[in-house]
């Protein structure tokens, strides 16, 4: 009973986990289960909580007769090969997926109950609230300082939203630099992009202005904003800023290769000259001996 209560403890999950998609979802799986689990889900394009819950078992792919280099490499780490060449999934891997699925289902159940309770409370509150009180609440929200401004769906401040988004961008750069053919990739605020926070009817909206000039609106969930739209923009070949960064990366790489290639033979003439001097010295000494 204790073990069941422990792994079904939803307090270990982020509040907005049910809305995660794409890289946000894979980052969560990697943090919660491990890099191997996240890699498998990413390759199978199981990119959200609903998609994951609808998949009976991600590991069932290894029971199929599929010729695929990536899956073959993953099977070496996820599966055990029997004497008859059949593959069975390691129990730890399969059970960890099951535990996560149970935990997410528990989270959905709790959120639904909480939503119903909040709905009942709001109905009662609205019935007992006067128009004067409503006006007072609205006015206080409009005059809130910008640093403390929060939306109706989130308890986070703008600074907290900014820090969360910056961390997500940093992780995205680390995870995607190889696929985008970068040796190093670091996108900096106010250099490569700018966050634009807007208060529209007491709701916080966030967009990202890329250095290329594009303005990308971010999706939102009950707690945090998601960078999926911005990430897609960065992968788009039409982004002139990313193309410029790639060009600089290539020029830097070619420059380093040129320096290495041209610096290698510098010592060769000196060595040859020293050998000629040593050879002439030996011949002179031999000649002097013969004369004596």
Structure in words:
This protein is mostly helical. The chain has two domains: about 1-120; about 145-245. About 55% of the residues lie in helices and about 10% in strands. It contains eleven helices and seven strands. The chain has helices spanning about 1-5, 20-30, 35-45, 50-55, 70-80, 90-130, 130-140, 160-175, 230-235, 240-265, 270-290, and strands at about 80, 85-90, 195-200, 205-210, 215, 220, 225. The strands form three sheets. A three-stranded antiparallel β-sheet has the order 3-4-5, with helices on one face. It has a two-stranded antiparallel sheet with strand order 1-2. It has a two-stranded antiparallel sheet with strand order 6-7. The longest helix is centred in the middle third of the chain and has 38 residues, at about 90-130. The radius of gyration is 31 Å and the shape is flat. The protein starts with a helix and ends with a helix. Mean pLDDT is about 80; it is low at about 130-155.
Q: Which features characterize this protein?
A:
two-stranded antiparallel ribbon, 292 residues, 10% strand, mainly alpha
Quick description:
The chain is mainly α. It has two domains: 2-119; 146-244. The protein is built from eleven helices and seven strands.
SSE order and pairing:
Layout lengths: L1 H6 L14 H11 L2 H9 L5 H6 L14 H10 E3 L5 E3 L1 H38 L2 H12 L15 H19 L16 E8 L2 E8 L4 E3 L1 E2 L4 E2 L1 H8 L4 H24 L4 H24 L1
Helix pairs in contact: 2-3
* Strand proportion: 5-15%
Instruction: Report the C-alpha radius of gyration, rounded.
Output: 31 Å
How many E strands? 7
Q: Decide which structural class fits the backbone.
A: mainly alpha
Number of helices: 11
**Order of strands across the main sheet:** 3-4-5
Largest sheet: 3 strands, antiparallel
